[in-house]
Please model this.
Amino acid sequence: MTGKDTNTAMNDQRYDHEPDRPGARRVRSRWWAVGLAGMTGLALTTTAVGIGGAPAIGAVDGILTAADDRRGKPDRASTDNKGHEGKATKDKHKGTPVPCDADALIAAITLANARGGAVLDLAKGCTYLLTANIDGAGLPAITAPITLNGGKDTSITRAAAAEPFRILTVDTGGDLTLNKLKITGGQISDDDSDGGGILVEAGGAARINHSEIVRNIASNGDGGGIATLGITTIKKSAVNRNTAGLYGGGIYSTGSLIIKKSHVEANNASSGGGGVASVEGTAQIEHSTISGNQSNQGGGMFAEDGVTSTVLDTRITRNTASVSGGGIILGDGQLAMRRSILAANTAGSGDGGGLHVDDGSVTVTDSIIKANTAIASNGGGFFNDGEMTLFNTKVTGNTANQGGGLYNDSFDVLVLFHTAVVDNLAITDGGGIFNDGGTVELNTATGTTVVKNRPNNCVNVTGCPG
Model:
């Protein structure tokens, strides 16, 4: 992309931080005993552990201070992202401190689950280094409302020499909030095991705020960074440089997914959705960037099986699919895109450099579709094999073998209102729009223009000069 206006439009958003499949799952057993002896400030003896290895509640009361006096009613004073290092930290009801020790964190989560929830303040500048596999994760499964508050340079990571396991699992009924934490180094390698960093089971919920989910791996499953079958909200966070063996290098969702003011960048998935893969549920992405991700299909985003997706005020840029849908691929679902930029994405051997619609419905409003490529096939900007409507949108500088700007497949419908298709290039034919037997409605009375495309403006489009 060149030009002053393009550079301005494509300038990445910046924020004030640095950036198993659907179906039945086994109920994970609860872990109780590992690591209590490492609790800082605790004098545990063999009598401090109850029958069956469960910790004696009195033995670990030191980790939960007066802030957790009301059992079953976790203190929420410091769950606000904005206040953890400001207003909330001055509140006398702030969370319970957890020393910089992995065993202390394990014991604190264990007791918080037993008591029905807690707010835990992790040590600033601390790396909680996990070494033990607790039923597939480095920490006990979250089964209650638990908040983990971090701070500057606070991280939770799997030790490099440890056997593969994810960092966190949120079980059915669990409710996890992460504030200012880095989750890294998680790796799950069992077949069909999902969530290299975090797994949210169906019926569970997670809120990830001002945090980083980076360099996690789901070797043979979905969701390198995060796999969610429940309800997950990501705000002002980064999900970067994660890898999945199947779908969702950064994030895989079959439930409800909300991403706001966040970065999903440089993730990789072998099958689909290098950045985000959303299947069956809903996905809402606002004021975010999905950039530099790679996959076989849907380099930036993969959505299918009836998913309902909304993309608002978001940049989907520089993603690559080795086959189809460099930016986005949509199969049998609905996508609404508004005030967004879909630019500089690439499809390798297949269709749809920017967006590939496969038996779905798409509405694009007030957006820019620019400099996407599908040189080996069709639809540099868009490949439509469904229903697509564009309102007040600019399609420019895209390149493909046929349909440099837009390719409309047979029996499909493409409708344009007040839309400009300008300066696109086809190697063979249909520089602006190539219609392969479907229906294209330009609605020129609304201001739609198809001009300055090479080698021609349109093929098989009524009312469009060739």
